[in-house]
Amino acid sequence: MSATMQGSAVGNLPPLDEDLYRRRRRARGLHEDVTSFWFLLPILAVFVVLFLVPLAQTAYFSFTDFNGYSMDMSWVGLDNYKKVFTDPSTLQGLGFTILYAIVVMVGVTVIAIPLAVILNRKFVGRDFVRSVFFFFSVPSLAIMGMVWKYIFSPMKTGVVNSVLAAFGLGPVPWLSNNSLAKFCVIFIAIWAQIGWHATLYLAFLQAIPADLYEQATVDGANKWQQFAHITLPQLMPGIVTSTFLLMSGGLKVYDLPFTMTKGGPGYSTYTVTQSIIQQGIGQSQYGIGSALAVLFFIATGVVVFLQMGISNLITRRFE
Questions:
Q1: CA distances from 215 to 53, 85, 199 (A)
Q2: Which topology term describes how it sits in the membrane (predicted)?
Q3: pTM assigned to the model
Q4: Does the domain made of 79-318 have the CATH classification 1.10.3720.10?
Q5: What pLDDT digit, counting tens, does each position of 80-112 carry?
């Protein structure tokens, strides 16, 4: 009896209006999209005001003779871009910037990975050693540059030359010789960033399951084989992140070379970012500085895009 009543009750329900259901579903989805848009609007506004608008202004000024403060300017076309490619200081700055970015990226990666592997092992005072290595990455590169400028000073107060003098050796022009100045700037850049990137790799190492190493040991794999076939593939996401940060930071470097050498001697440690600031602010040639900034923005974007593509290919290779 009850089953018959339930069957009749179900049979008496009105048929489902599929069109009404779809309309209500679309309305609910539209409401969620509008709500999401309002949450994203402040971020979009900041992005437009602080990035797109200045980028558009810089691109426009690169075709003018704007001096940075007077609105009395005229259209010069591609003249500013021609001056960029014929300016010796800018070309030297580009060469050192590329050298700096590549050497620092390779140097930090080659040293930070083995360091992270060592710090991941158990030994007495491990936490203290980890803290020491990370501590040197806390100060900014500008502060590092000021400190090491004093250490490498050619005067008697210079720490390194004072140590050399104690052993009867003559002073070394660390920051006044072209080759030595490049070496010092790049060396300090590598030294200052090893700790942070080693900590990044250490976080990825600690996420590797210990069972993988135990199984590899049972299978007869030695330490090098375990590193090549377990550790390195598991570290690939960290390597991609680290090299991306190092390359992008190296291309836009300004603080360390400027505080240590002011771009000298000559233009041996001159960088592209310093050239942009010098042209736009120091020499009131905002148009030329803007042209250089636009070219540098495009070149950096291309390099980062290629780097990410290569990194993705390598990551898929190790998966």
A1: 56, 58, 26
A2: Multi-pass membrane protein
A3: 0.83
A4: yes
A5: 999 999 999 999 999 999 999 999 999 999 999
